[in-house]
Amino acid sequence: MSAPPAEDLLQQWESEQARLRQQVLEEDTEDWQGSPDFSGLERVGGVDLSFIKGDDVNACAQLVVLSYPDLQVLYEDSQMVTLTAPYIAGFLAFRETPFLLEALQRLKKNQPTLLPQVVFVDGNGLFHYREFGLACHLGVLSGLPCVGVAKNLLQVQGVNKSEEHQSQIAALQRGGDSFPLIGASGKVLGKALRSSDKSSKPVYVSVGHKISLDTAVRLTHACCRYRVPEPIRQCDVF
């Protein structure tokens, strides 16, 4: 069993999160975001870190870029990486961001014309213990608009799998329907989205950086052929 993380490491990470949190932009910053059909958006990215069962040190860092709106693969990057930071709930970004950022930087260096205009992150953004999840971390460090899309509900800030939550899910009738995830403070931290008519199980969408929540939800739905947005789904495919 690994030793618990040093208290000073957690304090250092918390202060880094607080510092970077100040740089998050929770509004639309790009022209295409204001268009009803996202006119001007041509490339959407997806990133994910996947593990081999039973191995929590070696992982595969994946980046895909798809065309928009037809969602055809334009670029793929898959690299085996060795994680050095420990897994600690609420600090996932310190473990994963460096490798996802490297993938984006490789693309920017080698094929800059294929750099995505927005990145879907398999994880949370503002819907996080300290309102600074993986999608925020990657967004601030990369400077790109980012959307957090989680498959499972993070039970945080008073949001939990209550009977009310389950009944709200049941009330989502069709793809595109959503309801807000409201923290104990009253702030809307994200939305549960029924992303496809074919799937009654929602995904949890939150702002990463340089996008508003409503736009993030609308874009997530527009990029879903199935339950998970195609840029993230393609990461799991190849």
Automatic annotation (TrEMBL):
Q: Name one Pfam family in it.
A: Endonuclease_5
Which keywords has UniProt assigned to this entry? Cytoplasm, DNA-binding, Endonuclease, Hydrolase, Magnesium, Metal-binding, Nuclease, Nucleus, RNA-binding
Q: Which GO terms describe its biological process?
A: DNA repair
Subcellular location, in the record's words?
Cytoplasm, Stress granule; Nucleus, Nucleolus
The answer to keyword Cell inner membrane applying to this record is no
Question: Which domain of life does the protein's organism represent?
Answer: Eukaryota
Q: Which InterPro entries match?
A: Endonuclease-V (IPR007581)
In the record, what terms sit under GO molecular function? DNA binding; metal ion binding; RNA endonuclease activity producing 5'-phosphomonoesters, hydrolytic mechanism; single-stranded RNA binding
Is Nucleus among this UniProt entry's keywords?
A: yes
Write out the GO cellular component annotations.
cytoplasmic stress granule; nucleolus
Q: So which cofactors does this thing need?
A: Mg(2+)
Q: Which residues cross the membrane?
A: none
Subunit arrangement? Monomer. Interacts with PABPC1; the interaction is RNA-dependent and stimulates ENDOV activity.
> What role does it play?
Endoribonuclease that specifically cleaves inosine-containing RNAs: cleaves RNA at the second phosphodiester bond 3' to inosine. Active against both single-stranded and double-stranded RNAs. Has strong preference for single-stranded RNAs (ssRNAs) toward double-stranded RNAs (dsRNAs). Cleaves mRNAs and tRNAs containing inosine. Also able to cleave structure-specific dsRNA substrates containing the specific sites 5'-IIUI-3' and 5'-UIUU-3'.
Q: Which family does it belong to?
A: Belongs to the endonuclease V family.
> Mind telling me what this protein is named?
Endonuclease V
User: Which species does the entry assign this protein to?
Assistant: Oreochromis niloticus
